[in-house]
Amino acid sequence: MIDRQARAANAPAFRLQAWDWAYYADQARKARFDFSESEVKPYFEMNRVLRDGVFYSATNCRPDVQATRRSSALPPDVRIYEVFDADGSALALFMADLYARPSKRAAPG
Question: pTM score, two decimals?
Fold first, then answer.
C-alpha cells in the first residue's frame, strides 16, 4: 500500500514505522473490507456492549442470573456489576475499566 501510494504521488516509498501503524491499518481495513471504524463505533459503546452483549448473553445462558450495577468510589467511568444467582447468592463481581488515565499503569511485561 505504501509503495502504491508513493508511486501514485511520484514520491519515494518508506519503511513502515510503529507510529504509522494505526493510520495504515485503518487504510488497509477500508481498502479490503470497506470498513470504517467511525461507522461501527456507535454499536460498541461500553454501556450498550455490557447491556446488549455481555449481560444479554449471560442471561440467555442462565436466565436465573442477574447483574446489578454497583455504585463505587472509583472513577465514574469504571463500571462494576454484582452478579447474583436465582437464590440471591453472589456469583461474581464484574468490573470494566476500559479508559486510560494517568493513575493507571501497564502491567510489567
Answer: 0.55
Q: Do residues 32 and 24 touch, judged by C-beta distance below 8 A?
A: no
Q: If DSSP states are collapsed to H, E and C, what string results for 33-71? A: HCCCHHHHHHHHCHHHHHHHHHHHHHHHHCCCCEEEEEC
Q: What is the CA radius of gyration of the chain?
A: 21
Q: What whole-number distance in Å separates Cα of residue 84 and Cα of residue 93?
A: 9
Burial of 54 (0-12, 13-18, 19+ CB in 10 A): middle
Side chain identity at 33, as an amino acid letter? F
Mean pLDDT by 10 residues, the chain (109 residues): 88 88 87 80 83 87 88 81 92 86 70
Give the H/E segment covering residue 92. strand 90-96
Give the per-residue pLDDT at 62. Answer: 87
Enter the DSSP assignment of 11.
Answer: -
